[in-house]
Design brief:
By secondary structure, the chain is an alpha/beta fold. The protein contains 11 helices and 10 strands. The longest helix is centred in the last third of the chain and has 13 residues.
Length: 288
Amino acid sequence: MSPQDKGYAHPEAVVSTEWLADHLSDPALRIIESNEDILLYDTGHIPNAIHIDWRRDLQDPIIRDYISPEAFASLCSRHGIEKNTTCIFYGDKSNWWACYALWCFRLFGHTAVKILDGGRDKWIAENRPLTRVTPSFTPCQYPVPARRLDDEIRAFFEDTLAQSRALRPLIDVRSSPEFCGEVTHMPEYPQEGVLRGGHVPGALNIPWKAAVNDDSTFKSAEELRRIYFDEAGVDPSKNTIVYCRIGERSSHTWFVLTYLLGHHKVRNYDGSWTEWGNRVRAPIERER
């Protein structure tokens, strides 16, 4: 089933592997690979795709924050991305980091963004072409954004604490063992230095993986509405905050709620559990 047949609120935000294969040389597009494993790109990537490293390119090197508007403009300029360039993101891990990079682009007001349904895994599974050639595009002059949209789509610790105290919607998209406080990180990941396990008081646990099929594609809108709205009781009319450990998995859920289900009152708490679990006197709940 193509993304346009899945009933999404914004079907234009998702493209199929078939569609992308027919538009690899479209000058109006910029294909962007963003992975958790930063070495994957060099082993082979979609032709004409550039690589954006979520840590090196999007994070401030000293302060725990994102790059400045000036740095974002510079990043886009050197890759030939103009203000109206449509950016198509894809990557590993069912597009965790692709959604994270897309969310970061939205922070700076770049609205022409899409996700490749199924990401890197589906492209490779279909034996579609890969290359090790790094493309080169003519640099341009991307306008410096007036500001980051931190207030609109991003939440901070204080926002999340206020959300919790007011009993407003909070979604923890981590695994059940993480949510319950049995572990402080995913089993296949190293300990990241979080001192306490558990979840933000009042948070609802809807693991990010509930939104995808086995081939890493997004489930249909009908399935997603049943999972989030009918079964979990998420109310699209209410301001909602999503979080995970550092904001990557919750970016995926943010994309699902915002673009696929049309819930336009969602913010991503990117500090997530690595901040909350280490914050002195931050309230924590545990369920076993």
